[in-house]
Amino acid sequence: MQLGSTIFKYNNDIYRYGGYGFFSSRNFIIKYDFTTNEWESIILKSNLVPKGRYDNSFLLNKDEFVVMGGEGVDPLNRQNRNKLNDSWKFSFKNMRWNKVASDEYFKYFNSLFFNTKNGVGSIKGSKAYLYSNEDLSFKTYDVSSIILKISSRFKMYFFNDLYHFIVKRNNKMILMSRTKKELFGSSTSIRHIDKNTNLKVIIVLVFFSIIGLIILSIHQYFHYLEITSNQIKFKNNKTNLSNDEYRILQEFLSNQYILENNIIQEILNKEQYERSHNIRLKNKFISQLNSKLQFIFNNNITNYIQIQQSSFDKRYKRYFLNLENKKLITKPKPANRKSTYLLIFSIIFLILWIELELSFFKSLFNVS
User: Counting beta carbons within 10 angstroms of the beta carbon of residue 328, is it exposed (0 to 12), middle (13 to 18) or buried (19 or more)?
Assistant: First the structure.
């Protein structure tokens, strides 16, 4: 059930990671118990685990077990195998997995890897790729004639600053040793893994959020009629509002821009005046408010407050606020607007936190 798994030693104990069997790949680490002569599963302290894999490269770095590349099984079609393009590290100190990075070059790394001074290497076709675990970089080399003669039956090992390998000559197996320069020469290219990928995701999200807020502000500038307790504003035009005017506009806003005449009349009625005089004052009020809207919209022709027959009684009339596809809004106070922006950014970070998970953020700072 664990063909092609990774077997390694840590603190004089034997461990095994991954492997393939019965149309699936494993994603757990097991430890050999010498007292029972059985393999036992180790207990993790986090739910975050890499995809199951086999035939992968690996290295041990103090208390960390690092895996790279390998193959996995497609869960939708278990006949398919996928080259994996990621690297993960397991901390024996914290008993947790953390993702190191994703990069297409990891697809070149499998169980035929060889160790280097500070990482691992792999040969793919006419190229050799040396991965550094210290600065998370790939160096590419054009393989030498010596490398082409290395026997694929035996792995190459790095020891005492020399690469040791076996070549076949005249039907004989010969053990040879070479320095890095002798074996690989100079690198033809270097590729650094972007450790700030997550940070860039945050920056991109914040950037597009700012763009969204700018677009919203531009849309609001051209389509929103803003009112406060003492002012009405559209684009750069603004004028003062009385308490009654602000209250009536709020009523229009609350009632989908339609108000029955009796509601307006009741709001504007003054007890010291007779009914007929209150009606005249109401009509004058509507006319003045309409004039202010004409001034705000820079249009002296359109009546923005229009009279219609009441829907429940034809003998009564109602008023319709015609804003010509514009929207009336109550402008938030600066403190409230600031809170809205903070809420938007908080939601963005929360979504990113859930998507990438806490341990993924830890890997950004190279913390186990």
Answer: middle
201 within domain boundaries: no
> Of 338, 325, 295, which is closest to residue 222 (Cα–Cα)?
325
| Length of the chain as a residue count | 368
Q: How far apart are CA 199 and CA 221, in angstroms?
A: 33
Q: Is residue 339 part of a domain?
A: no
Q: Are 59 and 66 in contact (CB under 8 A)?
A: yes
Domain that holds residue 268: 228-330
**307-356 tens-digit pLDDT:** 887 666 666 789 999 998 888 888 765 545 556 666 666 676 666 666 55
Burial of 196 (0-12, 13-18, 19+ CB in 10 A): exposed
23 lies in some domain: yes
Angle, to 10 degrees, between the axis of helix 243-254 and the axis of helix 275-296?
80
- 118 and 75 within one domain: no
Are residues 35 and 99 both part of a single domain?
Answer: yes
Are the beta carbons of 248 and 289 closer than 8 angstroms? yes
pLDDT tens track for 243-300: 999 999 999 999 999 998 989 999 999 989 999 999 999 999 999 999 999 999 999 9
Residues 102 and 9 in one domain: yes
d(CA 327, CA 257): 10
Q: What is the distance between the alpha carbons of residues 47 and 194, in angstroms, rounded to a whole number? A: 25
